[in-house]
Amino acid sequence: MTLRSPQGMLTALVIVAEIGDISRFPSARKLTAWAGLTPAVRSSDLTVRHGHISKQGSDWLRWILCEATQTAKRSPPFAASYHRDRPPPAGPRLPSAARRPGPTRPAGDSMTPADNNLRSRV
Questions:
Q1: Average pLDDT, stretch 38-60?
Q2: Of 17, 71, 81, 120, whose Cβ has the fewest other Cβ atoms within 10 Å?
């Protein structure tokens, strides 16, 4: 990959300055944990809770990697893979009141126009 813009050069310089020798990290997972980009995990017996990112590493590195990610997902070479790997949206959600079943009316109990007028005034 080549860096064609001043922003790309700045990104590369900040990453190199903050990380130093990259060979000291055996995997990308170790690097992201060192940078503070992994979620905080709290566990007790069988319960595991994943929280927000831990923010334990360099503020500059975390900032520049997040900026690079936002730029890359809009870039044509990466946009297709970003949108392909992204989970589908959940779709429209109804308000909780619309999901709950209302009170049931007995069979044959129909509303009259007078009942509708009373309800609209309330």
A1: 84
A2: 120
User: For 99-119, how does the pLDDT look when each residue is reduced to its tens digit (9 = 90+)?
Assistant: 556 565 555 556 565 555 555
Name the one residue in this structure whose structure tokens are 């959940």: 90
- C-beta of residue 92 within 8 angstroms of C-beta of residue 72: no
What is the domain partition of the chain in residue ranges? 6-85
| Residue bearing tokens 């020798």 | 21
CA atoms of 98 and 9, how far apart (whole Å): 52
Task: Tell me which residue of 54, 64, 52 sits closest to 19, measured CA to CA.
Answer: 64
Phi-psi region of 20 (alpha: psi -120 to 50; beta: other; left: phi over 0): left
Coil, strand or helix at 41 = strand
- The pair of structure tokens assigned to 68 is 């690079």
Residue among 49, 53, 73 at smallest CA distance from 63: 53
Show the DSSP H helices in the chain as ranges: 6-19, 28-35, 59-74, 76-85, 96-99, 113-121
Cβ 51 vs Cβ 40: under 8 Å: yes
